[in-house]
Every structure is written in structure tokens, then in C-alpha cells.
Amino acid sequence: MLSIESRPYTDAPQLGQTQRVLIVEDEHLIREMVTLALEDEGYQVQMAIDGQTALTFLSDPQLQPGEFPFDLIILDLMLPQVNGLDLCRLLRQQGNPVPILILSAKGSETDRVLGLEVGADDYLTKPFSMRELVARCRALLRRNHYNIVNKPLRFEFGDIILYPQQCRVLVRGEEINLAPKEFRLLELFMKSPRRVWSREQLLDRVWGFDFVGDSKTVDVHIRWLREKLEADPSHPQYIITVRGFGYRLG
Fold first, then answer.
1. DSSP per-residue string spanning 95-128
2. Residue 6 pLDDT > 50, yes or no?
3. What is the pLDDT of residue 247?
């Protein structure tokens, strides 16, 4: 049985409300210039000079589940203590859905793909113009505001409950930990139960059109997902293989 519950998310920043940005950058000049540019646009900015300090700012024990201290994170990759890729990966594993914009001097296709693969929403190569940075921040915040306000509170299918705003999944009443790609796969399935998805469609929707890799990546993630969802992964009841076509939920 499928159930979808939806209502506006009251903690989403309203239009015109001050939005909070965390800048994680160890280069003093870049950190100050980005801060000034965003403050001139009316954003509230918090600065962190390394990954460990950023984690401290992001781990506020007073926040309720589904609440986050920032609306956007601007993240340098080459950071002391905890580097940007590890920090991005950790935040997504913890279920933090806040948009992340990576800043990096590494501009190769491999570097950009890796940054997006670990969970970043955008990637800007140094050197960059402040005008472009501000425009990208606006776009990410606008997109995130729309997604939060319009995103259902939860999806239910059988014994599975998925909370998209909190990036949480319960199976038979117990919470399970999913990697970002596993969560996005399950969310896609639960939005359209019984729809058959080809491997190519899943790659486009979950990994992105510019994904460089093999379609067998989908099969591997489906196997991992079954191991976490199914009572007996060798005889799946939820994620079903449709031979010659792809996969469906139920």
C-alpha cells in the first residue's frame, strides 16, 4: 500500500527571509571576498577555516530532526583536518540535504564528476567571478526552497517509510542507513511504485546525464539496496527485476 503525506515545510526559509550560508574555505582572501559579496546580497554568513570547524557549526544539538543550521554550504576541497570531499560525503551520509557548492582549483572533468558523485549540487572552478558565484548561490537556494516547500513529508510502501526532507528510511519499524545514491534510488522508486525503470533511466535520474561509467553500477546499488530492505534479498519482495527491461518497486 502506498501512502504520501504532504504539507508545506514550516522551517523552509520564506521569500525575503534572511538565508544562512556557511563558507568553508582556508584561504583568507577568498573567504573574505565571498563573505562580503554574499553579505552585500543580504545573506547571513558564517565562516569556517577548516572541515572540523565546519562540522562543529553543523552539529547543533538544539536542532530538531529535519532542521539544519544553514540553507547553503560553500565548500573548498583542499581543507586542513577534514578535506572537502570527505566532509561532503559525511554530510550526505548523515542525511543532511542542504545544497553544497564546491569551490576548487581542480577543474578537470574527473574532479568535477567526483565532487558531484559524493553529493555536491554544483561545482565552481577557481578562479571565478563573484557575480557568477552569487548567481549560482541564488539558483541553488531558489531550487532548494521550491523542493522543500513542495516535497512530501513521507512516502510509504509496505513496511517501508521514507522521509525525503530528513533523508531517513524506516523498514519494519527500524531505521536503516542508506548511502546517498541508495536513498535517491529508493526515493525514485517510491515516487512511482510499480513503474518499470530501465538502467539507463535510473542512471540519468540518480547519477545524472553526464555520468561516466557502466550501467552495471545500477545493478550493484540495487543489490546493496535489497540487502538493506528485503527480509530475504535472494527472493526480493520490494525491488523486482523485470527481465529485459529493468527494475520496479512492488
1. T----EEEEES--SHHHHHHHHHTT-SEEEESS-
2. no
3. 92
Question: How far is 250 from 151, CA to CA, in rounded Å?
Answer: 22
Query: CB under 8 Å to 72, separation ≥6 — which residues?
Result: 19, 20, 21, 22, 98, 99, 100, 101, 137, 140, 141, 144
Which long-range contacts link 27-35 to residues 24+ away (Cβ below 8 Å)? 27/76, 30/76, 30/103, 30/126, 33/130, 34/74, 34/130, 34/133
The C-alpha atoms of residue 103 and residue 78 are separated, in whole angstroms, by 9
CATH 3.40.50.2300 in the chain is located at 9-150
**Is the distance from CB of 126 to CB of 101 less than 8 angstroms?**
no
| In this structure, CATH architecture of domain 154-249 | Orthogonal Bundle (1.10)
Which pLDDT value is given to residue 125? 92
Tell me if the pTM is above 0.70: no
How does DSSP classify residue 242? E
Kindly indicate whether the domain formed by 9-150 is annotated with CATH number 3.40.50.10540.
no
Residues 19/43, Cβ–Cβ less than 8 Å: yes
pLDDT for 165 beyond 80: no
Q: Where, residue-wise, is CATH 1.10.10.10 in the chain? A: 154-249
- 132's grid cell: 557568477
